[in-house]
Each structure stands twice: as C-alpha cells, then as structure tokens.
Amino acid sequence: MPIVFYTENIGQNMKQISKYEYEVIKGKCYLYNDSFQNFKSYGIPHAQLIIADVPYNLDNKAYASNPMWYVGGDNKNGESELAGKAFFDTDKDFRPAEFMHFCSQMLIKEPKNGISEEEEEEKVDKIGNKVKSKAPCMILFCAFEQLHYFIELGQRYGFKHYIPLVFRKNFSSQVLKANMKVVGCCEYGLILYKDKLPKFNNNGQMIMNCFDWVRDSNTPKVHPTQKPVPLLERLIEIFTDPGDVIIDPCAGSGSTLRAAIQKNRKAYGFEIKKDFFAKARDKVLKDFQPTLF
After folding, report:
1. DSSP code per residue over 240-260
2. Which of 9-13, 51-55, 153-157, 259-263 has the lowest mean pLDDT?
3. Which of 92, 148, 245, 288 is 20 to 30 Å apart from 81, CA to CA?
4. What pLDDT score does 117 carry?
C-alpha cells in the first residue's frame, strides 16, 4: 500500500500516513486513490451535488479531438505516438450501472417540503418568503452519443427528470480532417434529479442550459479531459450552498475538488489511476490558496 500525505494546512506540517487517501484541508476535502465502488470503506457523507466526468468510451479515437494526435500539435509534423491510442486503460472497467447506483445512494434524501416538477407555483412559508428547495441533483459530463443512454439509465435508478447541458467553446480541439468538415466546439452534459427540483441559486436571473466554456489558465493541466475550474465553480454556486457536500466519483485531475474548496464546500473524490491521483494531489490540490469567507 503506497504512502501518501496528510496535511491540515496545505504545504505546512505535513506527515506521512499509510492510507489510500489524501486529506487536502482537514474536514473539507478528501481525495481517495480508489474506486468509488469501495466508498463504504471511507464513511463519506451524502452529497448535495455529485459531479462526474464519465469515460466517453472513445477507445482508439481518443486523441482525434486533441492536437496531441500530431507531433507538437501540428499535422505538418505527422502523427505522434499517441495517435490511435486510448486515453485510459481503465475505461473498459467502468460500469455505468454501478456508477448510477452509487449516485442514487450517495445523494442526500429529498426533503418532503421540496417543490416537485409538477407544481407550477412557487411555494412560500407562513410569512410569505419564498421556500428554497433543498433537493439534491447530479451533473454528468458525457459524450453527445451517451446522452440518451444515461437519461434512460438514470430513470432506472430513480432519476426521473433531466435537463440537457451544452458547454460552448470558442475553439475546437478536433484535429482529424479539420479542414474538410464542420468541427465541433461543444461539450455536453446532463442534470439528473429525482422528484423534487434541485436547490437553485439563480439570484433572480434566468439561467440558460448553454454555458460558455471558460478557459482556465490558473490550474495546472494534468489530465487530457480536465474541466475548467471556473466552469465547475459556476455549477457549484448554482446547485449548492457554502458548507454543502460535493462528491466526484471520477475525480481525474481533482479540478472539481479544487473548485469546491475555493467555494467553501466540502468535497470528496475518487480517482482509481495512481498517476492521475498523484498529479491531482501534488499539482492541482497542493499549491493554491482557497477562497476565505
């Protein structure tokens, strides 16, 4: 069993412990080098929000949407050693049904006084204040081709409702035959929830289901499908409050955990790959200052 680090204050008073876990800020953020399927071993709390970037199952076309397909990112240099390779050797081990079962079990229970999808009018309390929903939800990043599959799979596990998401970039990473066809510049996702509308912090503003993909120049790039922290922070602000629990069962780079810490939420993540776990621990979650409230 490998040695990892524990720290109460990032960069200070570090000591070694023999565990598959990394406690970034005591009581606020944990990253486990393990599969989410072993979550019962860690006694983690239930979440207000689960965010996951699941395997896209691109197989040997993974780098077709990445300049790294070519040497130096330029097709004039010919194909690199990554051409025709998969991103991860663990994608084949990902079991969507077990993942959805985990999500259905690890979200907090919906409150009885929540607002259902069928209710058209907003609820108010005894003195006329608007009742804020406290129901949980999950946000899933996935390939366009996977949307309907995860909608149907979610319904089998109690997620009766969904909202599709589009994340619009001002660039395209698709490189194969890019001068011969229309190229994609969007990523896709889903909001999945059960009976009650999820917690929603919109500050009186309408929120569209199409978000701009904000470039992230402040977070070390350690993962080929890493999501920008500013985008994750925006989603976290909408669907959670400070102090709420967020779980990322496919933590990858640790960017979701970083976003959660910076927004004063409690975060728990699982990353099965040792190299990505180490990079998240040593680069993404180590050398930054969380937002102070």
Report:
1. --TT-EEEETT-TTSHHHHHH
2. 9-13
3. 92
4. 61
Domain boundaries, the chain: 4-54+94-109+131-284
How would you label 244-281 residue by residue, b for 16+ Cβ within 10 Å and e otherwise?
Answer: bbbbbbbbbbbbbbbbbbbbbbbbbbbbbbeebbbbbb
pLDDT band at 156 (very low <50, low <70, confident <90, very high): very high
| Mutual angle of helices 147-156 and 96-106, in 10-degree steps | 50
Residue type, 201: N
Place of tokens 């709390």: 45
Pick from 94, 80, 61: which is nearest to 250 by CA? 94
Q: Which residue has the tokens 């500013």?
A: 230
Note the pLDDT tens digit of each residue in 59-92: 455 445 556 656 666 667 777 665 555 555 665 6
Q: Whose CA is closest to 2, among 14, 16, 18?
A: 18
**Tens digit of each residue's pLDDT (9 = 90 or more) over 253-275:** 999 999 999 999 999 999 999 99
CATH class of the structural domain 4-54+94-109+131-284: alpha beta
CA distances to 8, 66, 151, 268 from 259, rounded to whole Å, are 18, 24, 26, 12
This prediction has a pTM of: 0.79
| Euclidean distance between CA atoms 268 and 283, whole angstroms | 17
Distance CA 148, CA 37 (A): 24
